[in-house]
Design a protein that fits this description.
Helix content: 25-40%
Order of helices and strands: EHEHEEHEHHEEEHEHEHEHH
Number of helices: 10
Radius of gyration: 19 Å
Structural class: alpha/beta
CATH superfamily: Luciferase-like domain
Number of strands: 11
Shape: globular
Distance between the termini: 10 Å
CATH class: Alpha Beta
Largest sheet: 8 strands, parallel, barrel
Strand content: 15-25%
Length: 313
């Protein structure tokens, strides 16, 4: 089981002048602790449950580019990009630039977006739920096309690209992994089965049920369920011991989750970095129950562990 960090707050002592150094330490600390990936939210205002909407919030891809320059090994992504906020061709260029400049460490986390208040406040495109999911699917189609080198015109209901040329292409081989976030059973998990390399669920959902729905979508799409990395985002609350968090992660592992992504009260605080480092080391050898049983019988190489998708490594 893998562990990653989601940096959800940029409110630090010292105000705006302290953000760059504290954010640098958050990214470097995650890398020092051996975490798999470092994520930021794709929001423009702070979200409910984390803080007030007027608290500091950095634009995600600018922040990730800065994190790329501060680190050398950890993977980088938005959890998750709102597909409606950027034209598909522009988004592909943004993520490609991140991948090239980080030397192949980008993850494309993407979803349909949900925060209509911040979109209206800043004059960003949004639309109703049906429209947002149509845009998400077209964006995924454009992403796959541009990263495959297909420059034929693309004309959808919402996007029109006369020559979807992408140069340079990403360094990630064959391309940056595509992580699709959300719990929706009819639309989101279907899109995961058809276009994604990973799903991202939220804590509190019925994980076995959601994965069973995903499995059925994979069957209809003619795709192996095992190709998809199963990730879950959760929040570590103050007062929760590291061992308690290890236990929670192990329970999710038994339910089929392979990669957990944690948000902590302060991503730059050495205490929380060491906390996550301890959790990561404890769960490193843990996975779904069926994998654990197989490991008792066969070496890892025989299970194909070395061939898992990029988001798992």
């Amino acid at each position: 089981m893998k562990l990653s960090l989601s940096c959800t707050s940029f409110t630090w002592e010292g105000g705006t002048g302290a953000i760059a150094e504290r954010f640098r330490e958050a990214a470097r600390g995650a890398e020092r602790q051996g975490l798999t990936a470092f994520f930021v939210m794709d929001h423009f205002w702070q979200i409910p449950g984390v803080g007030r909407k007027d608290e500091p919030m950095l634009e995600s891809y600018s922040a990730l580019s800065f994190a790329a320059a501060c680190t050398s090994r950890i993977r980088l992504g938005a959890l998750v990009t709102g597909a409606v906020y950027r034209p598909p061709g522009f988004l592909v260029k943004q993520v490609t630039a991140l991948d090239v400049l980080s030397r192949g460490r980008a993850i494309l986390g993407i979803g349909a977006a949900w925060n209509d208040e911040e979109a209206a406040g800043l004059g960003l495109p949004f639309g109703d739920m049906r429209t947002r999911f149509e845009i998400l699917e077209e964006t995924l189609q454009v992403v796959r096309r541009m990263w495959s080198g297909d420059t034929r015109p693309f004309h959808g209901s919402h996007a029109s690209l006369e020559a979807p040329l992408n140069s340079p292409q990403p360094l990630s081989n064959p391309r940056p992994p595509i992580l699709i976030g959300g719990n929706g059973e009819k639309k989101t998990l279907r899109l995961v089965a058809e276009y994604g390399d990973a799903c991202n669920l939220f804590e509190g959902v019925d994980v076995p049920h959601k994965l069973d729905v995903l499995r059925r979508h994979c069957e209809r799409a003619g795709r192996s369920f095992e190709e998809i990395a199963r990730t879950l985002h959760f929040v570590v609350k103050p007062g929760q011991s590291a061992d308690q968090t290890v236990q929670r992660c192990q329970e999710w592992g038994e339910q089929g989750i392979e990669h957990v992504i944690a948000a902590v009260p302060d991503a730059a605080d050495p205490y929380w970095q060491e906390y996550l480092g301890h959790v990561g080391r404890q769960i490193a050898g843990f996975g779904p129950r069926q994998l654990r049983q197989a490991e008792l019988r066969r070496p890892a190489e025989a299970l194909g562990v070395t061939t898992l998708s990029a988001i798992r490594t």
